[in-house]
Write a structure and sequence with these properties.
The protein is an alpha+beta fold. It has helices at residues 13-16, 19-25, 39-49, 108-122, 194-214, 229-235, and strands at residues 30-33, 58-62, 68-69, 75-76, 83-90, 128-131, 135-138, 141-150, 161-168, 222-223, 226-228, 243-248, 252-261, 267-270, 276-279, 286-289. 22% of the residues lie in helices and 26% in strands. α4 crosses α5. The longest helix is centred in the last third of the chain and has 21 residues, at 194-214.
């Protein structure tokens, strides 16, 4: 790896402020801070206090997060300068300025996962897959997580979405939060330059997001001259086709075959009685692969 980009190198703020990059992506504002509790929490506060200062596709990224949160208030912390911690303000509207229906919002975190997968594949040379509902995996280990949070409704306008992404970049094996995680460096990537990776992710995201908005949030519409968002996500989602156990609130669980995503990005799980269950990202506590305890290996249910 190039010595100029050894672990611990700060983001290149001049590169991130480059007008050509910002105009090409349609990003109106990109702030970099040295340290904060959580970029998502900061933006949720900012869009409440001064909504006009944070238009659609405004970006906040931090060199170090002290109180990062994932789904269901799970907390984690990574060493300074070791990760990409970035949040984006989304005010989804089509080319005419008409807001997207809020039921299409569940696809926004999947767009982020898809954009990050493209970055890992094309920029870092790392093969990545999606795990429903909001993780990016490399060779079965988690390299990134995504958290979408609904902002407040201000002045009767449609509530914005704050979309946060955390990517492990230069973390060593001993610095990982859990043994089932990994990082860009550990996967032998061709680059671990956080500035390059961040710019690539934001570029990929802006293209997919704008295409989705211009299709009025229809996941079945073709995107940028290619397959629909629905097809693109399903094609790279490692969850599909597997036996899974979905743990739901109140100690409920569903065990079955993860068959497909519905039009809202929810996971459809078919149980042993051939009943189809809709599992939404907001409801699931854990989703894990499930192997039958049946010693015959025939996949019976216990």
């Amino acid at each position: 790896m190039d010595d100029a980009h050894t672990p611990g190198t700060p983001l290149n703020r001049r590169d991130l402020a480059d007008e050509r990059f910002l105009s090409a992506t349609g990003i109106p504002r990109l702030d970099v801070v040295d340290s904060t509790g959580s970029t998502n929490a900061d933006l949720l506060r900012s869009v409440t206090v001064e909504p006009a200062a944070w238009p659609d596709l405004s970006v906040l990224t931090a060199e170090y997060q002290t109180a990062a949160r994932g789904r269901l208030d799970r907390h984690w912390e990574a060493p300074p300068l070791s990760s990409i911690s970035v949040s984006v303000v989304l005010r989804p509207a089509n080319a005419e300025g008409r807001p997207l229906p809020t039921q299409s919002y569940s696809w926004l975190s999947l767009i982020a996962a898809l954009a990050l997968r493209e970055t890992l594949l094309e920029t870092a040379g790392v093969p990545a897959e999606l795990k429903w509902p909001n993780d990016v995996l490399v060779r079965g280990k988690k390299i990134a997580g995504i958290l979408a949070q609904l902002g407040p409704m201000v002045d009767g306008s449609v509530p914005p979405v704050i979309l946060g992404t955390g990517l492990n970049v230069t973390l060593t094996a001993s610095e990982l939060p859990v043994p089932t995680a990994t990082s860009v460096v550990l996967e032998g990537a061709r680059t671990a330059d956080r500035t390059v990776l961040l710019k690539s992710y934001l570029s990929n995201f802006s293209v997919l997001y704008r295409s989705f908005c211009n299709a009025d949030g229809d996941p079945a519409a073709g995107m940028a001259g290619g397959p629909s968002l629905h097809k693109r996500v399903e094609a790279v989602m490692v969850t599909l086709g597997k036996q899974v156990r979905a743990q739901l609130p109140g100690d409920h669980e569903i065990i079955g075959h993860a068959s497909r995503l519905d039009e809202y990005g929810s996971l459809l799980v078919v149980d042993r009685d051939a009943r189809e269950h809709v599992v939404t990202a907001g409801d699931v506590v854990h989703l894990r692969p499930w192997t039958s305890p049946d010693a015959s290996g025939q996949g019976g249910y216990a």
